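Quick start: what a row looks like.
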Amino acid sequence: MLIVDSKDCENIDKALKKYKKKYEKSKTLLQLRERQTFTKPSVKRRNQILKAIYKQKISSGKIEL
């Protein structure tokens, strides 16, 4: 549960903006989407390896964005 402390003089829009930022940083929506479908552990591991290879190529300069 997210709690946003707001002062009495603070606008409701600012408090809502703070709540949205906290919600985004907590990655709740990402976890929910991830749990909707089952992915095999081997597929997860393969995706991690491919991401690592891609990041390594970018850092070494072989791929330019």
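That is the whole record. The chain has a mean pLDDT of 90. Residues 41-60 form the longest helix (20 residues).
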